[in-house]
Amino acid sequence: MRPDLAACYGQERLPRYTSYPTAPHFSGTIGPETYAEWLKAIPRHASASLYLHVPFCRSMCWYCGCHTTIARRDEPITVYAAALRGELNLVSRRIGRRMKVDHIHFGGGTPTIMAPELFVDLMGAIGQSFFVLPSAEIAVEIDPRTLTGRMVDTLGLAGVNRASLGVQSFDPVVQRAINRVQSFEETAEATTSLRRAGIAGINFDLIYGLPYQTVASCLDTVRRCVELRPDRFSVFGYAHVPTFKKYQRKIAEAWLPDSLQRLDQSYAIANALKEAGYLQIGLDHFALPGDAMAAAQRDGRLRRNFQGYTTDTSNILLGFGASAIGHLPQGYVQNEVNIRAYSGTIASGKLATFKGYALTADDRLRAEIIERIMCDFGVDLDPICARYGSAPQEMLKSSPRLKDLISSGVVELDGATLAVKEDSRFLVRSVAAAFDAHLDGSKQLHSRAV
Q1: What's the rounded mean pLDDT across residues 339-362?
Q2: What gap in Å lies between CA 238 and CA 219, rounded to an integer?
Q3: Residues 235, 239, 245, 246: is their CA dihedral positive or negative?
Q4: Can you spell out the DSSP letters for 43-79?
Q5: How confident is the model at residue 377 (pLDDT cuts 50, 70, 90)?
Q6: How distant, in Å, are the alpha carbons of 77, 165, 230, 359 from that of 110?
Q7: What is the C-alpha to C-alpha distance for residues 1 and 337, in angstroms, rounded to an integer?
Q8: Cβ distance 222 to 274 under 8 Å?
């Protein structure tokens, strides 16, 4: 661990690089007509991944940076589910066939806020519009506090085979400060019930850098989570952007750990998980050695998309729902963020795309470099640049940021091969940023590098 580097680079706000360019650079020049053209141009042999966004929760967690809203009643959720089914049909018709699907991810919000019958109907609509491969991974994000036995049974019968449970922290002081009180017993019951229903893949989400969080409380949370032996952990640093997410204004800056304390917490969690037998995957994921994600990292097949690190190898991600983002070979598209506007547009028979980004050759080159850095902590520029007719040395010379990282001892450079030093890997986002040609205009919207 290099506290000197954390002090030097830790305060800078940088993207998590789940896409490149990142969402702040999307514009309204990409709309429904462009998206329809891109869908029609999808090659016949291609397969896709689906992301379905469910932007409802029963209560708001104050740390949340997602597009979600509070639903006290079930009626808005029912109306929204009908819009999702409509959008699935619209997109499938624009493609012109039932495209093969090998990954489905329900995110939120809280997808399991839906009534079991609604979820069954939605899975049926997916099956009507797309050909879901028998081997497909079907994942659902879950709030253990509101998960019912009926919903667990429904998930199992619907073919869900991976569940991501939000844990964040078991420290009661932290839980009260973020308005998310969740007992270990609730989490354990949800985990046991899901496994009993045949859902073998279990992920836990943890966060460090939360208000009043300490190394001791982080370690206690890890200790209790490890008792339940999930297959994977995602460990994220809290991104405090109250100007962007109004609920975060309920969290005072004075309650938050500084960059060095955040670094201590992240290292403590990582070391505890590794001691418990988990392998670190990239920057912030951990998996048991036999897990598919661990195998993907070993084989150099690890990818990164809007869900973080993934085994998903598809280059086409179709997003459904309010604010959902899709990725096609031509670029990115994002739906209307406002739920009512989204549902109304779909009900009128139109795609709900309201902004996006058309990729250039330079964007594709930089995106591939950034993805490899984020996944492998290094990159060989020669083969990537050769595919795009670019010169590696020109790419290296064009980045003053990279020169600083090399002189600071964060990065080693051997010819055109770049490697992030092991004791500096917590700064991998800073290294990726050295190849980001769009960074300067969006820094205020991102989280701290450490």
Answers
A1: 97
A2: 17
A3: positive
A4: -TT-EEEEEEEE-EESS--TT--SS-EE-SSSHHHHH
A5: very high
A6: 11, 10, 20, 31
A7: 40
A8: no
